[in-house]
Amino acid sequence: MLHFDHYYEKWMSKQLMEETNARRLERLKKGLSYSSIEFLRRVWLPAVGSFEHLHAEWEVRDFSNGYRYVDFAYMPAGTKGGIEIQDYASHARDLDIRRFKDLCRRHCLLALDNWIFLPIAFPSITDEPQQCQQLILAFIGKFVAAPAESNLSWLEAETIRLARRMHKPFTPTDLAKHLSVSNRHARRVLQSLIEKQLLEVASGKSRMRTFRLTEK
Question: Once rounded to an integer, what is the mean pLDDT over residues 179-189?
Answer without folding.
Answer: 89
